[in-house]
Amino acid sequence: MNDVEDGTAHYSIAFPRRWWYPACPSRRLGHRPVCVTLMNTPLALFRDAAGAARAVIDRCPHRNVPLSRGRVTDDGCIECAYHGWRFDGTGRCNGVPGLSEGSGASSSTRDLPSHHTREQDGFVWIWGEQGSVPDREPLAIPTPEGSGANSGEVVFEYDLACTLHAALENALDVPHTAYLHRGIFRGGEAREITAERRDLQDAIEVEYRGEPVGLGRIRGRQNSGLVFEHWDRFFMPSTAQVEYRVPGWFHIINTILHLPLSEFSTRAWFKVRYSSRVPAALLRPIVWARGLQILRQDARMLAMQTDTIRRFGGERYTSTELDVIGNAVWRMLRQAERAEAVTPEGSRARAEETPDPGAAQRVRFRI
C-alpha cells in the first residue's frame, strides 16, 4: 500500500527502496538468525563464516518455513529447521539433504532473493531493493565535540504505531515540544525565535536562532546573549537529527534512525551522543530519564494520531508556515518513491508538487 487517495482521503505513506535502512544493532546479530521486517517484507539476518551480516527473504522456498527459526552452519550458511535446506549470504541454495548425487542444489526456484548489507556505527544496514547494487553508503552518525569522561552515549529503541513520515515529522517538529513536553522541554514564557530552512542534497536542514539557553521551564533572559545553537535535519530516507550546542559548555546530537516495518508501524532508534563540562556519569541519568519520558509522550500521541486518521478514513491536515519541515519531508519521500516507479510507457514517473506553507526560507515564531 502506498499513497492512498480516493478524492478526499490521503495517507502519507511512501517506501523508497533504493536507500539504506537500519535493520538492528550489530550486537543483536550473533550466532543465531534474526528476523527483521522491512516495508512489509520479513528478512532473515545472519552472519556468514567471515562474520559479515547477510540478509535473505525469511521464507524457505521448499515449504515456506521462516529461515530465521533455523540455524547458521559452520560454513556460514543459513539452514532451514524443517528439512535442512541451506542458503549462502547471496541467497543461493547450497544444499538439499537427500537430493541424489550430481543434482545441483541451486536453481531459479530454490535460490532466495537477497539484500545488500553494511555494518556502520554499531548498526546493521539493509539496502531496500532486492538484488540491486547500492550506489551510496549509509549515513555516518556524527560525534559531538569533546571526548573522554565528559562525553557519553544513550540509545533508546521504540516501536511507534505510525507511518514513517509521521515519525520523522514528530522528531523534527519544534512547536509541539512546548505543549506535549511542557516542563520537560520548553514550556516557560514564550520567546521569539527564527527558523531558517535550507534544502540540501537528499536532506533538509533547519537552523533555529535566538532561543535562550534553558532546561524545561527554566530559561535564560531573552537578551542575555547565551543562546542555543540548534539545528534539525532530515536525511533521506529515514533519518532525523537534532543538534544542540552551547560552545564551550554543552553539545548533544540525537540521531534518530527509522525502520519502516509496515504502513503504520515504524521502529526507531534514538542514538543520543553528548559532551559537556558536567561529567558524563552525572549527565547520563538525566539524559536517560528525560529522553525516555519525552519518547513515551510522543509514542502515545503518534498512536492516537494514527488511530484517528484511520477511523476517519485518511489524513486531512491543515498546515501553516510553522510546519517548516514536515511537508518537505513528505515531498522528498514521495518524489523518491515515484522516481523509482516506471510508467506503462517505460518512463520514470514524476511526483506531483503539493503546496507547502512552510517552504519559506525564514520563519519567525514564538515558543
Number of domains: 2
Largest sheet: 8 strands, antiparallel
Class from secondary-structure proportions: alpha+beta
Helix coverage percent of residues?
Answer: 10-25%
Count every beta strand, where a strand is a DSSP E run of 2 or more residues.
Answer: 23
Instruction: Identify the CATH homologous superfamily of the largest domain.
Output: Naphthalene 1,2-dioxygenase Alpha Subunit, Chain A, domain 1
Across the major sheet, the strand order is: 14-22-21-20-19-16-15-23
Tell me, rounded to a whole number, the average pLDDT.
88
Number of helices: 4
Percentage of β-strand residues? 25-35%
CATH-defined topology of the largest domain = Naphthalene 1,2-dioxygenase Alpha Subunit, Chain A, domain 1
Quickly give the CATH architecture of the largest domain. Answer: Alpha-Beta Complex
Q: How large, in whole angstroms, is the Cα Rg? A: 23 Å
Tell the overall outline. Answer: globular
The low-confidence runs, each spanning 5 or more residues with pLDDT under 50, are 1-7, 343-352
Structure characterization notes:
- The protein has 367 residues and is an alpha+beta fold.
- The chain folds into two domains: 18-127, Rieske [2Fe-2S] iron-sulphur domain (Rieske Iron-sulfur Protein); 148-366, Alpha-Beta Complex (Naphthalene 1,2-dioxygenase Alpha Subunit, Chain A, domain 1).
- Helix content is 16%, strand content 33%.
- The protein is built from four helices and 23 strands.
- The protein has helices at residues 164-172, 177-180, 280-311, 326-340; strands spanning 4-5, 10-11, 20-25, 34-38, 41-47, 53-57, 71-72, 78-79, 86-87, 93-95, 114-115, 117-120, 123-127, 151-160, 192-200, 203-209, 214-215, 218-219, 229-235, 239-246, 250-262, 265-276, 362-366.
- The strands form six sheets. It has an eight-stranded antiparallel beta sheet with strand order 14-22-21-20-19-16-15-23, covered by helices on one side.
- Mean pLDDT is 88; it is low at 1-7 and 343-352.
